[in-house]
Amino acid sequence: ESLLRDYARLVQIIGFEKRASASKQDWTLSDSTWDSKQAIQIVLSGLKKFDKMPSPEKREIWAMFAAWDSNSSGSADTKEFVEAFKSMGSKNAENVVDNLVRLVDFDGTKTINWMKFKAIYGLATSEESQQDMRSDFRDSFSFLDTNSDGEVSIFELGEGFSKMNVGIGLDDVANLLFLYFGTAKPTITVDEFTEWVVADRCMTLSAVQYKA
Q1: CATH class in words for 1-125
Q2: Are 13 and 82 in contact (CB under 8 A)?
Q3: Domain spanning 130-209: which CATH class is it, in words?
Q4: Tens of pLDDT along 32-91?
Q5: pTM
Q6: What are phi and psi of 86, to 5 degrees?
Q7: What DSSP letter does each residue of 55-101 carry, written as one string?
């Protein structure tokens, strides 16, 4: 289940940046005046949100960071972010990552260390409304629904997660769906998919006050 949550967190980060870009927030503009003072303030805000997360959520986010810091340099490889977002259907993955780096780049290194990683996840995932969350997962469903019939089969889910480098195999997908719905689900609709993933996120972040 932690692998499903890894997928969900990345979807939430893409949605967080997408909404910020749509509203033209300063940190999403390449020629903006976003500076180190603003960046440190946003990092501190994100860290406060991260600190309020349940311990299991924090541990899983640390595991994601450790996996992306493959050479133990102390910074996550931004190329890993780009590849992950591309594999999830993001058409401008490089810009998304550039914006996220700019958001937290208080030290001018253009890297994402553990402090910045925590801040990004705190900002993007800890207090996202269910409405925005549902919108994010509906967008992701469209990428998984390869034949655009409004449903995804367990085979489409397995193949989609494989392309995203999310280690959820076909049997895992079938078992997770059975555990949630209480019956075998060879296919699920967009509403069922959204309900499934949102329910998992809300349960995991039970210590966070969600807005309806």
Answers
A1: mainly alpha
A2: no
A3: mainly alpha
A4: 789 999 999 999 999 999 999 999 899 999 998 998 888 899 999 899 889 889 988 888
A5: 0.88
A6: -60, -45
A7: HHHHHHHHHHHHHH-TT-SSEE-HHHHHHHHHHTT-TTHHHHHHHHH
